[in-house]
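Escalation from tier 1.

The customer reports that the assembly of two entities below gives different structure tokens on two consecutive runs. Tier 1 could not reproduce it. I'm attaching the input and our single run for tier 2 to review.
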Amino acid sequence: MRDFSQDHRWLSINTATLRKSRGADVPLPQILDLCAARGVRAISPWRDQVQAAGLSTVSKLVRSHGLELSGYCRGGMFPAADAAGLKAAHDDNRRAVDEARELDAACLVLVVGGLPGALAGKAAHKDIALARSQVQDGIARLLDYARTVKMPLAIEPLHPMYAADRACVNTMEQALDLCDALDPQRTGALGVAVDIYHVWWDPKLQQQIARAGRDRLLAFHVCDWLTPTRDLLNDRGMMGDGVIDIPRIRGWVEAQGFAGYSEVEIFSTQDWWQREATETLDTCIQRHKTVV
Amino acid sequence: MRDFSQDHRWLSINTATLRKSRGADVPLPQILDLCAARGVRAISPWRDQVQAAGLSTVSKLVRSHGLELSGYCRGGMFPAADAAGLKAAHDDNRRAVDEARELDAACLVLVVGGLPGALAGKAAHKDIALARSQVQDGIARLLDYARTVKMPLAIEPLHPMYAADRACVNTMEQALDLCDALDPQRTGALGVAVDIYHVWWDPKLQQQIARAGRDRLLAFHVCDWLTPTRDLLNDRGMMGDGVIDIPRIRGWVEAQGFAGYSEVEIFSTQDWWQREATETLDTCIQRHKTVV
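Tier 1 run:
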């Protein structure tokens, strides 16, 4: 397992982590400046942040700072209530692939979606098997396109508490079953993003990380699970503040040959987003070196 | 699949559902009176409610009302930080078995526990594999005793969002692996409580219900998953108000030969516990007949 204690060369900052400073929005260019100033070599930006700043502006900044993208957040949200919705989702995912390509991201992260309408509070139906079938079809179709521009797709299994409204792929095993179905040759075009927040609880985690192997481990995200967790979405903890044995899981991933970035992704309305972004970033660096 | 539309003979009320009326505690004897007055034939009471009213008082009331217990809530919480804690947990679980026996419960439901200390906000360690090992040892030991008094133990896999602090058994597959290990002869002494709130999201749910079979399906609990869910513990929905396809899951359970009660268990600080208990109970009966 790599030694992270001496420097933060393998730290990536998911830009949602620094989305807010003292409760106010931080524009993406400012986040990139902050990261570059501290010698962070990689980021993973969100589409809404890129759109707000402008893709070409972000693309230039990424290059001028010499930043890599450990991933691009995010494609997905495949299920829909009708054919028009399915087509709109596909078109939007193609654009996400193009943006990821323009930014030279290591992969496009897929948060696959849940029951159509559920995120807005009113599910169109209760058939999660149908949603899962639409996810498989949607990934299959997107994969055809992503292969042509050489953009790997990383399915991110989300915690089961998001099964209804954000992602109906909820375990590593399920995500890898999709990979086996859609890319049986293990070409590297399709894999998984392992976010420990979503999968740390899984009794089959070690086994499924081994099953994934190096070919399918496309991204590794860290934060921590707090007790108590006060909000289902925006109460993620800073590494070391919760109950996840992060080095153990990183060890499993690296035992498969994963040698990429450890990406910090923290949504925290009440805590970290209320602090100065510089404090949050400095803490990410310090914890990366001590508890990841 | 049984027809529930004509009456509520297969409805059981988990007494936590009626724990509060307009925000005020409702004593267990009053809950039993309410249920009996509406022709509810079964309940599943919580230990703290039984203790507050007195075991012998509750036992007499259960008999005088002719109520059955679809289960007794709850044993478990096996993991501990030291030997004294493990012994205390075992002793308490033996008492829970005795109480369940006194009340002639169909089973003792086991919420197995998570990382010791986590429920109080400070986990003693981060080794969930150790906690799981202590759970297996704890159930094995309790099972030896429970067999002697013929009280079936029902492992309740809890939603993965409770893995840290309430139960580190989080899928049907994991619970059934424990059953296979500890009661390979399928004697009926050990099984699972299927609470749809905890397992509805699981892509392997149908497969694992079939694996459980009639011998190991000891209890069936219903409520609903709301979108959004505002609280990790106490924002369960009334059947029909959320996204779970309840009849589909009940169909899978009954296809295995399960013919017991459908037990309503709703924790709802902001909604149902703020209403009159009579309104909550009447709604349970109505929804049992229409959407379960």
